[in-house]
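The records we work with from here on pair a chain with its fold. Here is one such record, which you should read through line by line:
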Amino acid sequence: MMNSRTAAGLNADVANRLIQMEKATVAAFKAKDEPEFVRHFSAQYIGVAGDGIKTAADEVRGMLALDLSEIKVEDAKATFPTPDMAIVTYTMVVDGHRQRVAIHLVIHTSTVYAKRDGAWKAVLHTESVAQ
């Protein structure tokens, strides 16, 4: 039988794995490594940001349009509304260029993961540029 300490320990392990997956996805975005970038996306993935509602293919097009010198993931946390759902939140600091125009953005981010057939997959990713 699982007690609250065991459940908390399992959640901490899963939280750490999901945060590492998210960091790997961000690193792949910076490196423009499409297979690694979309590796943890579900077939029903949706992205939501200031430039619209996007499919995985739209996210890849956006990745290819940017030339980023740095992306930092800060203050990452994972919460579990249900045993098969996790929400990873963090702040991303982005430096680089879009169409030769320098950009520096601070973005508040969330990714919702669903556990399906034993694997965690991103189903929703949101970004909100800090004011």
Notes: The CA atoms of residues 76 and 90 lie 4 Å apart. Residues 4-129 form a domain with the Nuclear Transport Factor 2; Chain: A, fold (CATH 3.10.450.50).
